[in-house]
Amino acid sequence: MTQNKDTPLSSQIAALTGSVQTQCLDEQARSEALDAARGLLAALESPVERVIQDVVMNSPVLMALRMGVQLGIFTQISQNPECGASSPDIAKKSGASLILVDQVTRLLAATGYIKQDGVQHFKPSPLTMVMADPIMEATTRFCFEVGNLCASKAPEFFRKNNNQFPSSAKDTPFQLGFNTNMEYFEWLGHNPDLAKDFQQWMTLKQKTTLNWVDWFDIQQLIIDGSNSKPEDVLLVDVGGGEGHYLRQFQEKFPETPGRLILQDLPQVVSTIENLPPGIELTPHDFFTPQPVKGARTYFMHWILHDWSDEHCRSILANIVDAMEPGYSRLVIHESILPDMHCHVPSACLSIMMMVQVAAFERSEKQWRDLLASVGLTNVKFYQPPGSGEGIVVAIK
Ligand SMILES: C[S@@+](CC[C@H](N)C(=O)[O-])C[C@H]1O[C@@H](n2cnc3c(N)ncnc32)[C@H](O)[C@@H]1O
Asked: Where along the chain is the active site annotated (predicted)?
């Protein structure tokens, strides 16, 4: 791209945007360019504009997204992309008042979540298509009803406890917000609609570029050297929710011998449908002894970040007891927080864990210390580019 020095900055940026839209960048290049583009935005936006955006605008935007799901705005606009939908159509179909629909669509259009092509008329933008996905609808409902409530109750909670880290998973902004004594997962067991939304949310990461089967060397680190008899267990997904990690694994390595076992709480296991053949489903509470002994891999994604070190030690001790020395691998897929310059998603996730379950994301040192405390010292760390996520592998 050649630019005359007299070309206005806005045209230079527009030209660069056009050229990026036609390029196919690898993940490393995309992530570096994204960081640079954020720098450009920060250079252009005045600090006060940025603060007003975060402090004043974020909550109406979040509310409009939640209402967009509730009123079926995204699904209706994306159903027929060529025609789109009008505010009166949306009001008629949802039963909402037209002026409410206008309020919500105005902000959704201003933020790019829908594309305005006439007065009270909208077509889908790429963001509309994402929001219309049932997984994203469930995620929006859950994050608004639960996550947002916990975050908004946090200042009151911390004021009352003298601004101390929550000392128990039974006493967090979550309990204050929902006026309950139950822990988070116990409460979900009594709220099946939100529990279903929660499990849908857990599958969201499959839609991003961050997919462990694509960046983690499963062949070398798990499959090579594993026992090859069909009755041997290749992978146990502990607290695996609806089993999407095992599904991905099976799709990527369909010919690999060995059993694949999905474990979760009975109330979760009983709701799982359409599990492909070859994935075994077992109810298991990970605070009790691990029934599958000597598996090649014990996998956990987003499990230990839900629990304090003390609880993690109980969960880990049950797995370590079942591991075959030198053979079994403990594979923990979680954030690995850097000591400096943490990515926004990991920092947000850590706050969410604090206000919902009195837990937090861990740094490499915190992972090493935790694993050493249950006798695991042979520990390695793997991270894809541009992310705070990673995989910790430990061998007994
Ligand atoms: C944050 S979700 C992660 C689910 C899944 N690993 C994923 O990444 O999509 C935590 C999971 O732990 C499960 N869980 C919570 N307490 C458990 C327990 N005591 N025993 C087994 N599973 C449990 C929950 O039901 C939920 O599916």
From this structure: 305
241 with 324, same domain: the answer is: yes
183 Cβ below 6 A of ligand 1 = no
The domain that contains 338 carries what CATH number?
3.40.50.150
Q: Are 202 and 264 in contact (CB under 8 A)?
A: no
Same domain, 125 and 145: no
Helix axes 58-70, 134-142, angle to 10 degrees: 130
Using the mean position of ligand 1's atoms as its centre, give its distance from the Cα of residue 378 in Å: 25
Output DSSP code: residue 306: G
How far is 264 from 41, CA to CA, in rounded Å? 43
pLDDT for 26: 83
From ligand 1's centre to the CA of 50, what distance in Å?
A: 36
Tell me the pTM.
0.90
Looking at 107, 131, 155, the residue that finishes a domain is: 131
- Catalytic residue, chosen from 244, 284, 301, 305, is 305
Identify whether 14 is part of a domain.
no
Confidence label for 209 from pLDDT (cuts 50, 70 and 90): low
The number of domains in the chain is 3
Do 125 and 141 sit in the same domain of this protein? no
